[in-house]
């Protein structure tokens, strides 16, 4: 697999002290006391900062780094990233409010997503952020709101490309999609845009996410640049910005390999001359969410009961799919695989056994670990799910069965 290296067990990204996993230098049992409850999520600010620093080291200086808030919209996390990245992308009015409550200038915030309400669009126009238009009809709505508010909206066109990111976990471009305007329709939309009182910013071309192949990313990025070069002729003006999307993935499951950032960065360096020649006045943006925060977070729940059923051991916990849908396998997995899981207060436990970790919900889907070898545990022990910094709490059905919400901490 080009540009990849074997991934170490995610547990090794965190220190262990007194048999306890440590996050931000704090032992897990103390973190549980600080949270005042289980379950809870905890995110390590030092790991987030380190990931951004690694990207800065390898990415070309010409490329701006933006954070997609949808990955983890916890206000404290977003506030922390406001001082590290060059911009934010939001996907709802709620996320827009979180972004605007930081030091990030509104002009460095973009608003994407299909089905934006009139209220969301009005807030976006009033804020001065860049609105990534997902359809010709949305463009007309934005122009009408701008006239009503006596504000000239800043807009970009989200393009549904005629290619996709190969080997991606989620294909966001190519084929028929609800996202963006089909590439072949963009010239017509640009012709109409020139007749409206809209301030055209540029293009947003996003072909897929969660790719662990540097060669696939390189191919998609090159195709993105060539598409933007073709489309700028229809704009009648140069592109101020080109958001090339993201797509950098993180490993979750056994056998997966982590991206070698040096290889990813080298591929982007090779494309800079093409961009400078054909898009000389265009700022390039790479937009990442999961890659910045996923490995910096864990989900923690407490064992309530240890039980056996026909020879199988179950650890029944106070957490589950209502808090962490992705770890249960019900957030897009075709064949369910276990996220990395540990007994966080028995990290050096010598006696191990094969168990399944389940939650308190009345459904067999409430499964956090299926037949995993873990240190022997019982009531009161703390189960840790790694790779939980992205698409955790806010991607989960927290209202299901009306259990209390988990806490969140940034340490």
Automatic annotation (TrEMBL):
InterPro entries: Ala_racemase/Decarboxylase_C, DCO2ase_PEP1, De-COase2_C, De-COase2_CS, De-COase2_N, Orn/DAP/Arg_de-COase, PLP-binding_barrel. It holds the Pfam family Orn_Arg_deC_N. The active site is at 362 (proton donor). The modification N6-(pyridoxal phosphate)lysine is found at residue 70. The keyword RNA-binding does not apply. Residues 46-294 form the Orn/DAP/Arg decarboxylase 2 N-terminal domain. Residues 40-389 form the Orn/DAP/Arg decarboxylase 2 C-terminal domain. The keyword Nucleotide-binding does not apply. GO terms for biological process: lysine biosynthetic process via diaminopimelate. GO terms for molecular function: diaminopimelate decarboxylase activity. Signal peptide: none annotated. Its cofactor is pyridoxal 5'-phosphate. CDD domains: PLPDE_III_Btrk_like. Keywords: Decarboxylase, Lyase, Pyridoxal phosphate. Transmembrane segments: none annotated. Belongs to the Orn/Lys/Arg decarboxylase class-II family. This is Pyridoxal-dependent decarboxylase, exosortase A system-associated. It comes from Noviherbaspirillum galbum. The lineage of its organism: Bacteria, Pseudomonadati, Pseudomonadota, Betaproteobacteria, Burkholderiales.
């Amino acid at each position: 697999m080009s540009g990849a290296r074997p991934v170490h067990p995610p547990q090794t990204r965190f220190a262990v002290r007194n048999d306890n996993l440590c996050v931000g230098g704090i032992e897990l049992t103390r973190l549980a006391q600080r949270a005042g409850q289980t379950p809870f999520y905890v995110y390590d600010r030092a790991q987030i900062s380190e990931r951004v620093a690694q990207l800065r080291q390898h990415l070309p200086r010409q490329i701006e780094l933006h954070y997609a808030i949808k990955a983890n919209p916890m206000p404290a996390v977003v506030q922390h990233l406001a001082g590290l990245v060059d911009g934010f992308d939001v996907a709802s009015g709620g996320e827009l409010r979180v972004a605007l409550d930081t030091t990030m200038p509104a002009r460095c915030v973009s608003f994407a997503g299909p089905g934006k309400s009139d209220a969301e669009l009005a807030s976006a126009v009033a804020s001065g952020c860049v609105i990534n238009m997902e359809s010709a009809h949305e463009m007309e709505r934005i122009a009408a709101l701008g006239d009503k508010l006596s504000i000239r909206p800043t807009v970009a066109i989200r393009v549904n490309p005629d290619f996709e990111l190969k080997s991606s976990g989620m294909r966001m471009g190519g084929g028929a999609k609800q996202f963006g305007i089909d590439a072949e329709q963009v010239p017509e939309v640009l012709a109409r845009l020139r007749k409206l009182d809209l301030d055209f910013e540029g293009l947003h071309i996003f072909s897929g996410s969660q790719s662990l192949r540097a060669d696939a990313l390189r191919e998609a990025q090159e195709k993105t640049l060539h598409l933007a070069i073709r489309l700028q002729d229809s704009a009648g003006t140069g592109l101020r910005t080109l958001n090339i999307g993201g797509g950098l993935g993180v490993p979750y499951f056994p056998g997966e390999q982590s991206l070698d950032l040096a290889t990813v960065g080298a591929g982007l360096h090779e494309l800079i001359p093409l961009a400078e020649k054909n898009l000389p006045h265009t700022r390039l943006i790479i937009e990442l969410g999961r890659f910045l925060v996923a490995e910096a977070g864990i989900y923690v729940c407490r064992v309530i009961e240890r039980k056996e059923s026909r020879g199988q051991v179950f650890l029944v916990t106070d957490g589950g799919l209502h808090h962490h849908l992705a770890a249960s396998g019900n957030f897009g997995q075709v064949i369910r695989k276990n996220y990395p899981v540990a007994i966080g207060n028995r990290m050096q436990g010598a006696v191990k056994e094969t168990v399944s970790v389940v939650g308190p919900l009345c459904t067999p889907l409430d499964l956090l670990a299926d037949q995993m070898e873990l240190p022997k545990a019982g009531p009161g022990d703390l189960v840790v799910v790694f790779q939980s910094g992205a698409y955790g709490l806010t991607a989960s059905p927290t209202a299901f069965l009306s259990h209390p919400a988990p806490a969140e901490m940034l340490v």
